[in-house]
Amino acid sequence: MYKKDRLTLILDILGKSKKISMKELRELTKFTDSTLRRDVISLENENKIQHRYGQVELVKARNVEFPFQFRKQEMETQKQAMAKIAQDFLGDNMAIFLDSSSTVSELIPYLEQRKNLIVITNGLYNASKLNQIHGIKTFLTGGQLRPGSGSLLGDFASDYLTNFTTDIAFLSCSAMDVKGFYMSSEEQSAIKRTMMNLAKETIMMCDSSKFNQTNYYKLCNLQGATTLITDKQPDTELKNALEHANVEILF
């Protein structure tokens, strides 16, 4: 097994268990002691995990973007519920942007019920799922592929998006508070911002675990979204800020 696949497997296991002993991790991965130690050190150096007293646990550093397959397992039930709400915004003969997030990917199965859709995405995994649905015209940006994330990023990807205007941009974020929406990556912020500028409407899909959090890169103010789809009602302060910004809240 290649190193990047081993590291992804370790993160997948921690995504389910959050904290686990080295002995249990060795039994689950079937890695040798020396291989597991090296991989744990690699993930520690990337600030993705913490290893102490024989225990390994996940560290959610704000400036770290975890692999797509790992992110897909987080809050999966909530993401599916949000996608069910979001599908009501879809209609026949529409053009839409889908970002590369695991949250937005849950919307893809509902696209099969619509006719003559044009979908533009910077998500490699999302494009692969779209490829299995007949009747959808899919455009995948070029750009630099970020290993593990399945995201195509950079100026080349953003420039490609300017060939389109769409009815809706379906996006997610890594954090939000009364001042706006945030991302852990400058490149992710840039391409999502381009999608927002080229869409008539922006629907932000953000689960409640991201409420009242910030990150290093601000995506936009709350006014940048027309609708917030989430899994439960925000607290009073955040709810009031969203309403003041004329953002529709659905959950």
TrEMBL record:
The record ties this protein, via InterPro entries, to: Carb_Metab_HTH_regulators, DeoR-like_C, DeoR_HTH, NagB/RpiA_transferase-like, Tscrpt_reg_HTH_DeoR_CS, WH_DNA-bd_sf
Query: Is Transcription one of the keywords?
Result: yes
**Per its UniProt record, what Pfam families does this chain match?**
DeoRC, HTH_DeoR
Per its record, how is this protein called by name? Answer: Lactose phosphotransferase system repressor
The entry lists its GO molecular-function terms as: DNA binding; DNA-binding transcription factor activity
Record's function text = Repressor of the lactose catabolism operon. Galactose-6-phosphate is the inducer.
Keywords assigned by UniProt, alphabetized: DNA-binding, Repressor, Transcription, Transcription regulation
Q: What is the lineage of its organism?
A: Bacteria, Bacillati, Bacillota, Bacilli, Lactobacillales
Taking every annotated instance into account, which residue ranges of this chain make up the domain HTH deoR-type? 3-58
- Xref: SUPFAM superfamilies: NagB/RpiA/CoA transferase-like, Winged helix' DNA-binding domain
